[in-house]
């Protein structure tokens, strides 16, 4: 283990961040690295407890607890404490194909179930993970691993998000010839277009994609399966197909005035911003601009927070975020105990930035939008709301009811709808003729087989909008199944086979 008394001797040090006012001037990552000395001290806090909940990913009460890719956390914490970084990297790469993504943007359910966190702040697992992989790249320890033998089997993967990329990586290493089809102009799914550069710089995504390409994976961009190439063609050309098309169908807010100019979907806003930044450093003007506008983000989640950070960098005039739910408690409550994911109040990077710029947290809780109002030219000018409270109905279920007299009018020229996703786009699923349940592909976790022979599904298209670390988990597991399907056996790792 790390240092036997490390969790007593050292306090948790929170992740370093660049000054919010400074970082608002650019689109670079907001986080800042720790020094090796700090990281070794933080690694020493790991107790190497006999039953490390941190590395056993599961769902409790609808939220993730522990690491879904079963990262060998106590092992690499110990190696980092001892300064044996290269060995820590080897341990990390055994379970996680892309720690440079999760080490930056994973919500770290591992930390919520860290044993130290029963009574003290958790070990800073996510930052250690990021430092290990960043050091691996900086020191040239990450080099292309070109498979020595090819099996002659061909696999097509539709969609290049983390699920598709993880499946491609595993199957390529097993010697199969893998082609990834992507309808967008860049590879990465939501890693590229969705999560903004301030959270995950796109050079980090491109570095991994280039490496996978060097290792033998073929990428075909600007190609929508179902339009530019049919399922029949793919089924004919490949021995197996994996659908990793995500769950990006917008959920709309259909209320009076929705047609007003200036009411946009969050995903369109985020995608165009990143694309313009990458294409032309924002010089082409091909994005939705918040400059000088009063902006309201409807939706209290992470996508909403990413919209806030983007609007602030575009120099909006004001920013507010509406959430349907009440503010979270400051500490765990009796119905959210360890090792569950802690549902507690926190300031996201975007909220800190809004506070630095405008002096207050932009979030408004328990609020419902009633209607949008536009001017005589159809341009949005205001938004009407009412406050809500949570009550029990006759059957004892919690429901929201409006509080009379709390109506309010908010000036707004740009509204971003970030109220989640309805599920996967259906066209490509119809194209393959796979069974669908609740809009998602019907394919059992662990088997990943769809109703069509040779066609598998993994990631958000199968489980609905989730997390990158779950997408990587599913990519790895579906690869094991597909390898087995093609070869009759598989030596690829699987947690489910353990
Ligand atoms: C704004 C936003 C921020 C997020 N932030 C975080 C975060 O900080 N941390 C975290 O863990 N998770 C985050 N998530 C969730 C996470 O990004 C997803 O759970 C994850 O990317 C799902 O991976 P995936 O590979 O299943 O699908 P996706 O990443 O959605 O990729 C699917 C890909 O398939 C492509 N595709 C679809 N149809 C076709 C077709 N017919 N032909 C070819 N290509 C096709 C799409 O263009 C897309 O590139 C965020 C999500 C959003 C929307
Ligand atoms: S991938 Fe996420 S859950 Fe797993 S160790 Fe890293 S931060 Fe924790």
From TrEMBL:
Q: In which pathway does it act?
A: Amino-acid biosynthesis
Provide the coiled-coil residue spans. none
Q: EC number(s) on record?
A: 1.4.1.-
Q: Which residues are in the Dihydroprymidine dehydrogenase domain?
A: 24-140
Say yes or no: keyword Amino-acid biosynthesis present: yes
Q: Name one GO biological process term.
A: glutamate biosynthetic process
List UniProt keywords, sorted A-Z: Amino-acid biosynthesis, Glutamate biosynthesis, Oxidoreductase
FAD/NAD(P)-binding domain residues: 154-475
Superkingdom of source: Bacteria
Q: Name one GO molecular function term.
A: iron-sulfur cluster binding
Q: Check the record and name the InterPro entries matching this protein.
A: DPD_II (IPR028261), FAD/NAD-bd_sf (IPR036188), FAD/NAD-binding_dom (IPR023753), Glut_synth_ssu1 (IPR006005), Glutamate_Synthase (IPR051394), Helical_ferredxn (IPR009051)
The transmembrane residues are none
Instruction: Name the chain's protein.
Output: Glutamate synthase small subunit
The species this protein belongs to is Radiobacillus deserti
Lineage summary: Bacteria, Bacillati, Bacillota, Bacilli, Bacillales
């Amino acid at each position: 283990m790390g240092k036997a008394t490390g969790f007593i001797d050292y306090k948790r040090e929170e992740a370093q961040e660049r000054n919010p006012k400074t970082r608002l001037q650019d689109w670079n990552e907001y986080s800042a690295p720790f020094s090796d000395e700090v990281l070794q001290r933080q690694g020493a806090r790991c107790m190497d407890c006999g039953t490390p909940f941190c590395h056993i990913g599961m769902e409790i009460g609808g939220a993730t607890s522990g690491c879904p890719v079963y990262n060998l956390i106590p092992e690499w914490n110990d190696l980092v404490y001892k300064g044996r970084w290269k060995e820590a990297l080897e341990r990390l790469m055994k379970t996680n194909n892309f720690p440079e993504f999760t080490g930056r943007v994973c919500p770290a359910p591992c930390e919520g179930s860290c044993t130290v966190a029963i009574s003290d702040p958790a070990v800073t697992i996510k930052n250690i993970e990021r430092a290990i992989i960043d050091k691996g790249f900086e020191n040239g320890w990450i080099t292309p691993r070109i498979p020595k033998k090819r099996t002659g089997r061909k696999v097509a993967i539709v969609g290049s998000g983390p699920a598709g990329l993880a499946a491609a990586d595993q199957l390529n290493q097993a010697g199969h010839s893998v082609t990834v089809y992507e309808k967008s102009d860049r590879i990465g799914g939501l890693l590229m277009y969705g999560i903004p550069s301030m959270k995950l710089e796109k050079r980090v995504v491109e570095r991994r994609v280039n490496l996978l390409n060097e290792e033998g994976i073929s990428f075909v961009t600007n190609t929508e399966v179902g339009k530019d190439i049919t399922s029949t063609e793919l089924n004919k050309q490949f021995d197996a197909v994996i659908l990793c098309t995500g769950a990006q169908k917008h959920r709309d807010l259909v209320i009076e005035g929705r047609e007003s100019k200036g009411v946009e979907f969050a995903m369109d806003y985020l995608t165009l911003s990143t694309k313009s930044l990458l294409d032309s450093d924002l010089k082409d003007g091909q994005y939705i601009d918040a400059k000088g506008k009063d902006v309201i983000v409807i939706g209290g989640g992470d996508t909403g927070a990413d919209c806030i950070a983007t609007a602030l960098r575009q120099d909006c005039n004001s920013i507010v975020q509406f959430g349907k739910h009440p503010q979270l408690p400051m500490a765990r409550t009796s119905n959210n105990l360890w090792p569950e994911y802690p549902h507690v109040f926190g300031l996201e990077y975007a909220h800190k930035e809004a506070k630095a710029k405008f002096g207050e947290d932009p979030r408004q809780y328990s609020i419902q939008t009633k209607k949008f109002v536009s001017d005589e030219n159809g341009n949005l000018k205001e938004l009407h709301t009412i406050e809500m409270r949570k009550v029990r109905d006759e059957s004892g279920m919690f429901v929201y009811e409006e509080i009379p007299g709390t109506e309010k009018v908010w000036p707004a020229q740009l509204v971003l709808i970030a109220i989640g996703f309805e599920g996967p786009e259906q066209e490509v699923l119809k194209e393959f003729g796979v069974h669908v349940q609740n809009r998602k592909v019907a394919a059992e976790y662990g088997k990943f087989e769809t109703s069509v022979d040779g066609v598998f599904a993994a990631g958000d298209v199968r489980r609905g909008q989730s997390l990158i670390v779950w997408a990587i988990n599913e990519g790895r597991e579906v690869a094991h199944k597909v390898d087995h399907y093609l070869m009759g056996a598989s030596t690829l790792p699987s947690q489910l086979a353990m």
